[in-house]
Amino acid sequence: MSDAKKCANPTCSCIPTDKSKFCSPHCEATKGTVEIACQCGHPSCQGEALRA
Ligand SMILES: [Zn+2]
Ligand SMILES: [Zn+2]
Questions:
Q1: How many independent structural domains does the chain possess?
Q2: How many Å lie between the centroid of ligand 1 and the Cα of residue 10?
Q3: pLDDT per residue over 36-48, tens digit each?
């Protein structure tokens, strides 16, 4: 099962902890905006661009 709920920020590939839909306040702040690449600051995510 790889149905883990990832961060609700489309450009983010992090898996939020707890019951949050976002992995970080940064991602929550991106609601309604479009990032080219997530900048939540998590090492495994930073610079991650949308993949085709
Ligand atoms: Zn991220
Ligand atoms: Zn995130």
A1: 1
A2: 9
A3: 888 898 888 865 4
Q: pTM for this structure? A: 0.70
Provide the domain limits for residue 48: 1-52
Q: Report how far Cα 45 is from the mean position of its chain's Cα atoms.
A: 8
CA–CA dist 4, 41 (Å, integer)? 20
CA of 47 to the centre of ligand 1 (A): 8
How many H helices and E strands in the chain?
1, 0
> Looking up tokens 């990032």, which residue turns up?
35
